[in-house]
Design brief:
Number of helices of chain A: 13
Oligomer: heterodimer
CATH topology of the largest domain in chain A: Rossmann fold
Helix content of chain B: 10-25%
Largest interface: A-B, 12 and 9 residues
Helix content of chain A: 40-55%
Strand order of the largest sheet of chain A: 3-2-1-4-5-6-7-10-8-9
Largest sheet of chain A: 10 strands, mixed
Shape of chain B: rod-shaped
CATH topology of the largest domain in chain B: Immunoglobulin-like
Shape of chain A: globular
Number of strands of chain A: 10
Number of domains of chain A: 2
Strand order of the largest sheet of chain B: 5-4-3-2-9
Strand content of chain B: over 45%
Structural class of chain B: mainly beta
Number of strands of chain B: 27
Largest sheet of chain B: 5 strands, antiparallel
Distance between the termini of chain A: 79 Å
Distance between the termini of chain B: 189 Å
Structural class of chain A: alpha/beta
CATH architecture of the largest domain in chain A: 3-Layer(aba) Sandwich
């Protein structure tokens, strides 16, 4: 059995974590926490960490003991500097809280790359986890911001991504809000849907890694996949509907843009991949699977396949790392532009202020 | 001459009240002989007849056998008065006889001791004899008279009861009653005589004297009985026998008296489990005789355990419970097992040597043990649910 740690850091991370907990309750009802029990596929410990207590309070499905308030300020105001300082000041307290939950084989650290607490804490938390748990696999789940959300967010995303890469995580799973906002209309529904999608995929992944599979894909395979390419990847998912229960279309569906959390052309950009297929026996045609995987292999190279027999229509989860991330480059370019703009704006303001002050430079107040 | 002389006197006598008659008398005298008439009449002792100014009274019949009576003849407004014993069928002249203006009386017949028939001869002018009652006749007679009363000492008589009969004989007359004898007809077979029979009364009773005879009898059979009148016979000084009797009485004899016990039980209210209740027992004698050696017994022990006497006793005995009397007692019982139990109560008593029984039953309910916590049982799931929800709420409340 896998010991899984799921950390949600910052407002975004907290919400994804709440979605995970909600998913574990069975999803649907708001009141499910009063009558249902959480059903995690493995031993899963969840912990929501935030500097802003209001963000912790709005969680619904995360137990109170699993909400950790870092008593710094009321949030860090998207300032990574303050965030880092806050972490260092409370490092022991945070890590003790994690260590109290026992040993872990894998940790998912869910956060937004752009926020204050999330972007500043996550690289440090990943580092600390790597330090303290020698054999742990740490997978940050980074949520990229809407490009138009603001220059500070873009800047934060850029720097935090770099920080993460530096602390040697076992691969990053990318989620792009910008890409996913097409899902539904208003922002609240969109966020909820994104969080739900992430939660659903992560739980499916954990379940698959912990299952006795027909065709073996375990944590080691997952790690291998995640270390491929740039060490950045994403998840694709497809659940067959009543009409089309064909496995081929399911597998293809999981790597189509509609099933992905981050925009990528899997056939072109993927470095390594893992296809996990779940469903009732009658759907799992060996030929179909083999053909589909072969098709992928010829394009990508290494494709792990896992088959889990579980009652229900076929569901396919695809995990893959990318060998090139054109969108990320664009993001950095935008970020650099944003930083430049910010800088010149600041200089201009400074100059304007200096010019204004110059008027009174040699003067004294007269009463 | 002498005759003229007498006539003159007679005229003078007659002329005093009736002057006009003097001339007539003179005329009659002149005719010498006046007409006489003969009349028969009967007389009783103390009766008399008026014939002109003469009065003839029968004093007594001296002897019927000898035909002797005593009469008194007198004349109004005159000194003439003659007491004489007359013999039957022999004329007797009074005031010189009928021929001379007096009376000639003959006793024709003596009917009995006080009635005679007479014939009087007198001048027609005296008119018809008219009867009257003499002063002596109107005066009270010296005769004994008895009054007899019979009295029973009780009106409510049942078979077996002794009744005392008191016969009182009182002489309310003014002469001594002799040879008094009481004749009392026994009301057999409704009664049996016990003592004092036949009743004895003094042989002679002075005026105003009374005597009492008492005898007792026992009622033997039930029904309406008429006690015949008691007759007392007695004789007066002349040995004339009379009788007097009391009023007959009727008596209803009721059936024989006997005791009749009733057991009245006031059972306790349903006893709570392990609680106590009081049984009130009243032994009432509704009959009309005492019940003796009354023993009340219950079958409480054989009813089964779970019910026991903790105070007093249901079994009691009483030496005597008089008619109309009652005895009450109460007992405290404790129920240690639920259920309903029927308890028999048997009263045994003696009356007239016979042993009688009376029985009654009553029910004692012991209620089920009240398990109060059961009332709270339905709340428990609600509480558990509430506790669960509250715990969950606390768990997720940050």
């Amino acid at each position: 059995m896998l010991n899984v740690l799921m950390l949600g850091i910052g407002q975004c991370g907290n919400r994804i974590l709440d979605a995970v907990n909600r998913e574990a309750f069975g999803g649907s009802s708001r009141l499910s926490k009063y009558y249902s029990r959480q059903k995690f596929p493995s031993r899963v410990e969840t912990l929501a960490i935030n500097t802003a207590i209001n963000d912790l309070k709005e969680l619904r499905f995360t137990a109170a003991k699993d909400r950790l308030h870092v008593p710094n300020l009321h949030g860090v105001g998207a300032n990574r500097g303050i965030g880092k300082q806050g972490f260092w000041e409370n490092r022991e307290m945070i890590m003790e809280e994690i260590e109290r939950r026992g040993d872990f084989d894998i940790a998912f650290v869910m956060t937004s790359a752009s926020g204050g607490t999330g972007s500043s804490f996550t690289p440090l938390v990943v580092h600390e986890l790597k330090e303290r748990y020698k054999k742990i696999t740490v997978i940050p789940v980074m949520v990229l911001p809407f490009r138009e959300e603001g220059s500070i967010y873009l800047q934060n995303a850029a720097f935090s991504m770099r920080d993460i890469m530096e602390v040697e995580s076992d691969g990053i799973i990318l989620v792009d809000n910008q890409y996913l906002k097409r899902l539904s209309g208003d922002i609240k529904t969109a966020y909820d849907r994104i969080n739900e999608m992430v939660a659903e995929r992560l739980l499916f992944l954990i379940e698959s890694l912990d299952s006795e599979m027909l065709s073996v894909t375990d944590l080691g395979d997952f790690k291998t996949v995640m270390r491929g390419g740039l060490g950045m990847g994403t998840l694709g998912f497809y659940e067959s509907d009543k009409k089309t229960t064909s496995l081929t279309s399911a597998i293809e569906g999981s790597i189509k843009p509609t099933g992905l959390l981050y925009p990528a052309d899997v056939y072109e950009d993927a470095a390594r991949a893992m296809i996990i297929i779940q469903g009732s026996k009658e759907y799992l045609e060996v030929d179909e699977i083999t053909k589909a995987v072969e098709k992928l292999s010829t394009k990508i190279g290494q494709v792990f396949k896992g088959i889990v027999i579980k009652k229900g229509r076929p569901k396919v989860l695809s995990v893959f790392t990318l060998s090139q991330v054109p969108d990320l480059e664009m993001l950095y370019a935008q970020a650099a532009q944003a930083i430049q703009d910010e800088k010149s704006k600041k200089t201009r303001a400074k100059k304007q202020l200096d010019d204004a002050f110059a008027y009174i430079e040699d003067l004294e107040e007269v009463y | 001459m002498r005759r003229i002389y007498l006539v003159l006197i007679a005229i003078m006598l007659l002329a005093i009240p009736f002057a006009p008659m003097v001339a007539a008398a003179s005329e009659a005298d002149e005719e010498v002989e006046e007409e006489t008439t003969i009349r028969d009449f009967s007389l009783r002792v103390d009766e008399g007849v008026r014939i002109g100014d003469y009065r003839v009274e029968l004093i007594s019949v001296i002897s019927r056998v000898d035909g002797l009576i005593e009469v008194k003849v007198w004349k109004r407004v005159s000194t003439f008065e003659d007491w004489r014993v007359m013999e039957i069928l022999r004329d007797a002249n009074f005031d010189e006889g009928a021929d001379r203006g007096g009376l000639t009386i003959t006793v024709i017949e003596i009917f009995d001791e006080d009635t005679v028939r007479m014939r009087a001869k007198y001048r027609s002018s005296y008119g018809y004899p008219q009867k009257y009652i003499t002063e002596r006749g109107m005066a009270p007679k010296n005769l004994p008279e008895l009054e007899v009363t019979t009295a029973l000492d009780r009106k409510d008589v049942s078979v077996g009861d002794e009744v005392k009969v008191t016969i009182t004989v009182n002489n309310i007359g003014n002469a001594t009653a002799r040879d008094v004898a009481v004749q009392d007809s026994p009301p057999l077979p409704a009664f049996r005589y016990v003592a004092g029979y036949p009743p004895k009364i003094k042989n002679s009773l002075e005026p105003g004297e009374s005597d009492v005879a008492v005898y007792s009898m026992v009622a033997a059979t039930e029904g309406d009985v008429t006690i015949p009148a008691t007759v007392a016979r007695y004789a007066d000084s002349k040995s004339r026998v009379s009788s007097a009797s009391s009023q007959p009485q009727s008596v209803t004899i009721k059936p024989k008296r006997k005791p009749d016990l009733v057991l009245l039980v006031e059972p306790p209210q349903p006893i709570s489990y392990g609680g106590r209740g009081t049984v009130n027992v009243t032994v009432k004698n509704q009959g009309d005789a005492s019940a003796y050696m009354v023993e009340v017994k219950s079958n409480l022990k054989s009813v089964g355990d779970g019910l026991e006497v903790v105070e007093g006793n249901l079994d009691r005995s009483f030496l005597e419970i008089p008619a109309g009397g009652s005895e009450s007692y109460s007992t405290t019982i404790e129920g240690s097992r639920s259920g309903s139990r029927i308890i028999d109560l048997l009263a045994t008593f003696q009356a007239d040597g016979a042993i009688l029984q009376k029985e009654t039953t009553f029910e004692v309910m012991v209620l089920e043990r009240e398990l109060r916590f059961l009332y709270f049982l339905p709340i428990v799931p609600v509480l558990i649910l509430a506790a669960w929800l509250f715990r969950r709420y606390k768990e997720y409340k940050y």
